[in-house]
Amino acid sequence: MIVELENVEKHYQGVHALQKLNLTLKQGDVLGLFGHNGAGKTTTIKLILGLIQASSGQVRVFGKDPMGDNAHNLRRQLGFLQENVSFYQQMTGAEVLNYFAKLKGCSKIQTTALLEQVGLSHVAKRRVKTYSKGMRQRLGLAQALLGQPKLLLLDEPTVGLDPIATHGFYQSIANLKEHGSTIILCSHVLAGVEKYIDRALILGQGQLLAEGQLSELSQQTGLPVVVHLKGANLQLPDHLHADATWVNNGVQLRVSQQEKMTLLQQIMAISGLEDINIQMPTLEDIYTHYTNQLQYAEIN
Amino acid sequence: MLAVLTVANKEFHDGLRNRWILAISVMFALLATGLAYFGASASGQAGFTTLSSTIVSLANLAVFIIPLIALMLAYDGVVGEDESGTLLLLMTYPLNRWQLLLGKMLGHWLIMAFSTVIGFGLSAIIMGLFSENTTWSELFGPYVFFIICAILLGWIFIAFAYVISASVTEKSKAAGASLIVWFLFVLMFDLSLLGLLVGTEGNVNAQLFPLLLLLNPTDIFRLLIIGFFADQQLSGFMSIAQHAHFTLPILFTGLITWLIMPVILAITIFNRRKL
Predict the structure, then answer these.
(1) What predicted TM-score, i.e. pTM, was given to this entire model?
(2) What digits encode the pLDDT tens for the residues A207-218?
């Protein structure tokens, strides 16, 4: 096990930042950690990094206490990129990376390779002050990748990145996963991340709201599949009228995920059908579902 | 130890990069040379004055300026890294808190020592070249002594700055606290002692009163310089100190104690700091 959390709780002066959290990560897992601000994402990450002590419960990283005597060795195998790090403005990108590399005990050859990998070689000799937000973020990523960490924790890594840079970033996540890294990705930008994560963990007000593979979570929510049928003169069978809403160029059908296959077989026979568009519940839908549930529970 | 040196090296290079070292060196050199040349103008003379009077007046100025520079140099040492987010990041590296703090402090100490040697050393060379009434051999000892004392004074206030920086959560608060510390040690303390003298009309315990001077590193610095140039006529309440006859080792021990205490305090506070 790379990461194990057992009934972990964290209180700050009366505030329950985290309540009874259980989590295990195997090697090669990519976990998405989602939640509103103040949901406990950063607290979870800080606990795993050994920056704060859990109020109760057990935190184990590589089977050891991240705040214990082994912390030193443990940290050589960790990579971390936090939100909004602005680094040292007066230093060049290469100097910043070399400084962190020295502290982690990595070679200078590696920093050159990493700068190349994140696409910063051409600006390596420029001061960080002149960097764009995206370049800083990439420098941060290069920093997190120093020493080929076995466990990577990335807090809001794509904030401020343009779509192309975001795509490039996720691509490097996929590469790292292939090389056996375990990754925790913390974000509230949900679009586009689905493809790259194995599992999702949704937090709300310090509580675990849901955890599992996206397909499992999607089924648990019972959210409908939306099938959009396009055609001017659709002849809809009678039993489908209940699920249907007429829109200007066709029909929208909302059915449960279990009924999806039966429905698809039926609609192939409908005359006047020009096109089909199937929309499965997205990560965003799942996320909204669980966080709304929490708010609903609170009102009652 | 390697980690400490890595951090110190980075900090020292920052000092070169943002011109701190240059600024402090130039300032010290101008101050020392200016005092040496114009110091006697009050008594109607121009040109280089005697070495001992130069150094005593230099010490009187240094006592104000060195603590101020040291505090300004290092007040954001911890809190600045916290605000930019690099402190949190560094704490996930294989680096203990004390290593980071000591490394940063060492870096700032090096900046201070380097600038002091360059600045005052330069003025010593200028004096040696152009002054007619001092020889190189006369110059060497006093300047080395003065530079060592000045460096120690700077180091003490850098350590003070780290105590402040490790305690507060905002840069602006650290700046404010630094100003208060400067005010207390450099102005208030001596004024209160003077007040005490005036208030009691000089009826203070002649044995005990000088000991109060040991409670302030800037006064110890003054006593050291005065002790070295004892032929000088002393003015103000510093003349009281002549009764005390503090030996050089006592005064140096005092300064070193003033250096070690805040270092330990800063590390202790930093270890408890919440991230």
Answers:
(1) 0.88
(2) 899 999 988 898
